Amino acid sequence: MDHFPTNWGRPRNDAVDPYGTYPLHARPQPKHDAFAEGVQRTQQPIVTGTSVLGIRYKDGIMLAADNLASYGSLARFKDMKRLHPVGNYTVIGAGGDMGDFQYIQHHLDNLIIEEDDEEDGHTLGPREIYEYLSRVMYARRSKINPLWNSMIVGGYKDGQ
């Protein structure tokens, strides 16, 4: 569809581009790059969160984090939640790349849904979530596509 009102109602010539610079069949082509069509991966964190604090005390645990996510040195997002409940017994907190943290949140939410669908009476606690996250982080690092996060897992289940 032609979005330029000055061209409406005029006959088209598809052999040349709208600006008349090159015939379409003779347009200069960039050099072929073997990696140009591959999937692009994050080489360094872009939107980042800072530290998360976890404290264990006599009657439980406490996690704390701010809501700021920075774009470089710019305080860009001031409402980013960096603590996420997972199931009934666990909370995770993350520093590092917020896009990767959202990816982890999505996968953990799907994991909890799959576990609930089993209806076998088993629920995932902090130990299982920690083991799952450590396997996911190691697998991604081994594929040279790391998740750029530092995570803290806290929870309380069965008195532990």
UniProtKB/TrEMBL annotation:
The keyword Cytoplasm applies. One of its GO terms (cellular component) is proteasome core complex, beta-subunit complex. Pfam families: Proteasome. GO terms for biological process: proteolysis involved in protein catabolic process. It is found in: Nucleus. Keywords: Cytoplasm, Nucleus, Proteasome. InterPro entries: Ntn_hydrolases_N (IPR029055), Proteasome_bsu_CS (IPR016050), Proteasome_sua/b (IPR001353), Proteasome_suB-type (IPR023333). PROSITE patterns: PROTEASOME_BETA_1. The keyword Ligase does not apply. This is Proteasome subunit beta. It comes from Rhizoctonia solani. The lineage of its organism: Eukaryota, Fungi, Dikarya, Basidiomycota, Agaricomycotina.
